[in-house]
Amino acid sequence: MARPSPAVERTTAILDFLAAHPTEPWSLSELARRLDLNKATAHALLSALTDAGYLVRHPVRKDYALGPALIGVGRAALEQYPVVDFARPEVRRPADETGLPCLATASGDGDMVILERVGTARPLTVSVAVGQRVPIAPPFGTAFVAWETPAAIEQWLARAGSPVTDAERARYDAALAAVRDRGYSVTLDADAHARFTRATSSGDARVASRDDVGALVDELGHQDYLVIDLDPARTYRVNHIAAPVFDPDGRVSVLLALIGFRGPVTGAEVATLAEALVEGATTVTQSVHGRLPAA
Fold it and tell me: Which strand (E) or helix (H) includes residue 85?
């Protein structure tokens, strides 16, 4: 796959960064520093985006924020995912009941994209934002690919950053089988995941390059990340729990996910939270006339 031009990558980096900080205006100098751009390049890109209405520039402070043209773009994009309208109440309900942020995430062009988020990030946890993208590549995306065809699963495995060993293949096969059996996925917190989230959410000092992101995904693939056997008595440091919404063809269209766990939780607690999430996902599946895939 051909890499996008540097200008395109820099433009999307600006938009992604501002989308990750929607309530904060940023000066030219701050954006250039955060995105590792020289000021002349940053000024040219910001001016073009402002002229197009994708950004606005404050007349006095001279700082930049997202512009009104993106409202129409966002609404048009959401029309491709009408399931989000049905999913929104089922995202809010577990967030209200548990105090944990809840997401609705769809797949598109090889990535997972966060379409909806309810709940506030807790202190000392890494935040994620609407629009954030995560590659569907091992170990990410098990709840999206668990019900896919063998050929699609092979394609997913081929996206791993480094060749999958026989032992890793067996572990992924077991993880996908566990997701199908339980009806949801569970992943664990790991240092590489925290660094990955900071990189892709643009929340740290600089936006990571695609190569850096790929290296973090690959590193995570070699860590203890996927929960296969969920022991009710054991405690886990959970990263997220995800349950699938199925479309009328029996394919996963959206995931509902709980995130933001601060401390260890028992396997029994994980199962209770997951069952409620699955119930909500099932409600959305029925609302969109979806069906469970054939066994």
Answer: helix 83-98
